[in-house]
Write a structure and sequence with these properties.
The chain is an alpha/beta fold and 434 residues long. It has two domains: 1-137, 3-Layer(aba) Sandwich (Rossmann fold); 139-434, Hnrnp arginine n-methyltransferase1 (Distorted Sandwich), CATH 2.70.160.11. The chain is 19% helix and 27% strand. The strands form three sheets. Strands 6, 7, 8, 10, 11, 12 and 16 form a seven-stranded mixed β-sheet that branches. The chain is elongated, with a radius of gyration of 24 Å. 41% of the residues are buried.
Length: 434
């Protein structure tokens, strides 16, 4: 991960940016310190003391660097002398006395923000060790979801599943395993970058779910429901739901610059809200990763892992639909994605959506009156409400992720796919047809 320049440089710039208020002459805790790089950055930015919490053997590697700093007058690491205390323990199991700290830094992030469940340790550390009005770095994580078309990945996955449909594989009938194989392949999230042009919804309706690390509780992080309300901007096929995340590094009293606001009056399908802000998921240009989001000394540093940004080791993730959804321009997918922790230090994912004719929606009141919960099977037609076309329910297991590197976001190999027709997508606007 040290070789992930985007990730490492973002954290370095964030710590520097926070330094005057939250690092310089402050007591800092680094939760899950790993190589110790964040602890070293904190000392470089003026921290008076850093508690580096690390349970693995990496604590010993850190100690070698500190031993060199403390014993060798000519060491380039001399700036670390007497600044860092390593605590070889999980933060939940610490037995030594540790004072309250001014700032907690950590890189507890996994695929789609939450995989590996390190965020729970980050929140635990906040509740036990952070001073009132102390700083969390990062301060905000945002999970982003969008429907995409990806016929190549879907076909490749189906081909793998069909292998188990062979009745004569060396005179062995594999077909008794075919159903299980299909379920396993299509319940495994696919980690890897994807073409940003494959997003089928409008950018304004890409789902954004904020996880405020200053406020979220341990119970809340274990059961997450993300409302989805995707306005379809192309006629085509939805093969998967794509996911990624953004991070922000804010002081305690700063408002997030990338926070999505919702109009509660449009509450429908239980928890689904229609975004009212104009910002989309690419509201910061690609050259802002690891920098302040806007001009100004104290604007927060942001990290975006979406498909329009430089790739990170987290990449993005795609959740393939066992049955792709044919959509038309102007329709809408509404429902929710539920994420519940499991025993594999990850999450079980459940999508429950309805495809409806957006043209039938004339007002928020009409939506509220006529749109049933996503768990209720809708009537196909309604005389006084939206037209229901189909319902989709899917399950995935985030810990069973597989990897696919067929799309290289740094390559020119996909320049021929900049137009929608190259991805089998159509809309009057994109094809310049009145």
């Amino acid at each position: 991960m040290l070789q992930d320049f985007v990730r490492t440089n973002t954290y370095r710039n964030a710590i520097i940016n926070l330094s005057p208020e939250a690092i310089k002459n402050k007591i800092v805790m680094d939760v899950g310190a790993g190589s110790g790089i964040l602890s070293y950055f904190a000392v470089q930015s003026g921290a008076s003391k850093v508690y580096s919490i690390e349970a693995s053997s990496m604590a010993g590697k850190m100690q070698k660097i500190l031993d060199d700093a403390n014993s060798n007058p000519n060491s380039k690491n001399r700036f670390l002398k007497d600044k860092i205390q390593i605590v070889k323990s999980k933060v939940e199991d610490i037995v030594v006395d540790i004072e309250k700290v001014d700032t907690i830094v950590s890189e507890p992030i996994g695929v789609l923000l939450v995989h590996e469940r390190m965020l729970e340790s980050y929140i635990y550390a906040r509740d036990k060790y952070l001073k009132p009005n102390g700083t969390m770095a990062p301060s905000l994580g945002t999970i982003c979801l969008a429907p995409i078309t990806d016929s190549s990945l879907w076909a490749e996955t189906m081909q793998k599943a069909r292998f188990w449909q062979q009745p004569e594989y060396y005179s062995i009938d594999l077909t008794p395993l075919s159903t299980d194989a299909f379920k396993e392949y299509f319940s495994s999230p696919v980690v890897g970058c994807f073409n940003p042009n494959s997003i089928v919804s409008s950018t304004e309706t890409i789902s954004r779910f904020d996880v405020d690390f200053y406020k979220i509780t341990l119970d809340e992080i274990k059961n997450i429901t993300i409302p989805v309300c995707w306005d379809i901007k192309f006629t085509g096929i939805v093969h998967a739901i794509a996911g990624w995340f953004d991070l922000e590094f804010n002081l305690h009293d700063q408002l997030p610059v990338n926070q999505t606001k919702y109009d509660n009056s449009t509450d429908f399908m239980g928890n689904a809200y229609t975004p009212t802000n104009d910002a989309n998921y690419s509201s910061f240009s690609s050259d802002t990763n690891g920098k302040s989001a806007n001009s100004g000394a104290r604007n927060p540093v942001t990290l975006c892992t979406g498909p329009n940004y430089p790739p990170t080791h987290w990449q993005q993730v795609r959740f393939l639909l066992p049955e792709p959804i044919a959509v038309n321009y102007g329709q809408r997918l509404v429902g929710k994605m539920t994420m519940v922790v499991n025993a594999s230090r990850s999450y079980d994912m459940h999508l429950d959506v309805n495809l409806i004719e957006n043209s039938f929606i004339n007002s928020n009141a009409q939506i509220q009156q006529n749109l049933p919960p996503a768990t209720q099977t809708p009537q196909l037609y309604s005389n006084n409400g939206p037209k229901y076309i189909r319902q989709a329910k899917c399950n995935w297991y985030l810990h069973e992720q597989i990897y696919n590197y067929s799309y290289n976001s740094n390559s020119n190999d996909y320049n021929n796919q900049i137009n929608p027709e190259n991805l089998n997508l159509y809309s009057a606007e994109s094809n310049n047809i009145n």
